[in-house]
Amino acid sequence: MAQVLPAERDLRRVIGDGDGVTDGEVEGLDEQPLLDLYRSLVLLRTYDERSLVYHRQGRIGTYAIFWGHEAMQVGAVHALEDEDWIFPSYRESAIGLLRGMPPATILSWWRGHPAGWWNPADYNVASICVPIGTHVPHAAGLAWGKKLDGESAAAIAFFGDGATSEGSFHEGANFAAVMRAPLILLCNNNQWAISTPLSAQTAAETLADKAVGYGMPGVRVDGGDVLAVYEAVRDAAERGRRGDGPTFVEAVTYRAAPHATADDPSAYIDPERVEEERGRECVGRYDAYLRRLGVLSDDLATEIKAEAAEVMRRGIAEAETLPDPDPALVFEWAYAEPPPSLAGDLAELRRVLGGSLG
Length: 358
Ligand SMILES: Cc1ncc(C[n+]2csc(CCOP(=O)(O)OP(=O)(O)O)c2C)c(N)n1
Ligand SMILES: [Mg+2]
What we know:
By secondary structure, this protein is of the alpha/beta class.
């Protein structure tokens, strides 16, 4: 039997604190799937930490850091089937790694290289969505379409606390509920939308409360607890497949890193709170859980981290060997009949680039 605290208004948790709060377990997860979760957490953490370094070295552009958000992403994706579709925001940019996408593809996206765009049908992972919340109706439509086609696939849309104030979120949530689409609305409540705190975002007591207005269940989980997220998303996917419609999952965490590499949070965030949250980060919590369970040793942890570091080394090397794209791409595909001024702009760009590109 799964031992999971009830949702109610409290956060569902499975991982204890190694002290007064005892560990739970998730039904059906034995040693191998537990270690698979760990490998994925380490892979995403390594991707994120290396990306910050690559940005500082000028090897990728502005980057949206997801340090501390890995448990939400890994827990959710592992709870899904490969046929299920993932709709990421910029905060989940590397989620394709969990579906076998090469790191070079995602690194290329952050390098602004056309090799960073993939065919969504190759991985059942939609394009990274930067406009806040606009992918929620897309995910609702895809989930409804799968249902109409008699398929069992579900869809999950990842978005933030700030996105719940956007029209697209409300339209997508309402549509999915009315059509009983197999959709999981995974809200990464990291309590900040750049510099806007949650208290300035909503007057609702919890974001999960918003589910009530659409007639769907709302569940609150500890977003730093990979097993709690896994369990909640697995339930939500099963519910969707049964034909009972969407579920809103509020995964509560705290953004303990800058919004992105272009942000300076010292202007608005309490550094002591950030330090406190960094001490509770999700990979370390799961690492300690597995050690208490006796399934993770120092040697195995070291091996898994070394593997992830090597994957990233190869990924950035591969991305950097790609030939520079033709600057003409910037001007193509927007107009059937381009205005004549664009040809002049392209010539100017080629001149500025010194003929080194294209
Ligand atoms: C439609 C739209 N409006 C504004 C922005 C600028 N913007 C980029 S990130 C962001 C904050 C979003 O916060 P949240 O939804 O909580 O997600 P988080 O970044 O915390 O993961 C905003 C307003 C945007 N990308 N798209
Ligand atoms: Mg946020």
